[in-house]
Design a protein that fits this description.
This protein has about 210 residues and is an alpha+beta fold. The chain is built from six helices and nine strands. The protein has a seven-stranded mixed sheet with strand order 2-1-5-4-3-7-8. The longest helix is centred in the first third of the chain and has 22 residues.
Length: about 210
């Protein structure tokens, strides 16, 4: 019995290790992994199309209370508007699997984007979770910034107050804003990696 348990644990560790090694190929200060995803209007977006531009990747799930905090307050939309006006490409990505929280039809997605007056460049659909796992996205929101050379220069939380309380937004240090302002002005990024917070990304195995 004990031997059987040990064998099972051994194989579980092998399987888990294999999955973890395949989950993420995104590394800070390295080339961001290439991907192509379709948006809620059936247009395909490739990361490589935006070489020469800064790109923000924002993992999202409209039903997550942490995402709602930033959208109901207008905080996320304000960031989207401010930086897309400066030439930044802002791609919101949903990796919720079919039947999981946050997975919607394209009509439902576009209706919610309209209701929130969202201003991202595109809302991209990653139902099989391939891109989310490639980047190691764990939560909604989970934020990534890629520079003009295609290098990942920031990964992690949107800010430093891990709550669903809208009142915390003005008090929080916004890591994404800080990193973008520094990058756009040609200054070094002060904080490159933080731990994201929010709801777990609803991959198939969740």
């Amino acid at each position: 019995m004990n031997k059987l348990i040990m064998v099972l644990i051994f194989f579980l560790l092998i399987i888990t290790g294999s999955k973890l090694s395949a989950l993420s190929s995104a590394e800070i200060d390295k080339a961001a992994p290439e991907f192509a995803l379709t948006d809620s209007y059936s247009k395909t977006y490739k990361l490589s199309d935006y070489k020469g531009k800064f790109v923000v990747l924002e993992w999202m799930n409209f039903h997550c209370p942490f995402v709602k905090k930033h959208y109901k307050s207008g905080n996320m939309q304000n960031l989207q508007k401010e930086y897309t006006a400066k030439g930044v490409v802002w791609l919101s990505i949903c990796s919720s699997a079919p039947g999981k929280e946050g997975n919607f039809s394209t009509d439902q997605i576009n209706q919610q984007l309209k209701e929130y007056n969202a201003s991202q460049t595109a809302y991209l659909i990653d139902e099989d979770g391939t891109v989310g796992k490639m980047y190691g996205a764990k939560t909604t929101p989970d934020m990534y910034i890629i520079n003009k050379e295609g290098i990942l220069i920031y990964t992690g939380a949107i800010d430093d107050i891990r709550s669903t309380d809208v009142d915390d937004i003005p008090k929080a240090k916004n890591f994404v804003k800080e990193a973008l302002d520094n990058a756009l002005n040609g200054n070094p990024i002060v904080t490159k990696i933080t731990k994201s917070y929010g709801c777990s990304v609803k991959y198939n195995q969740n």
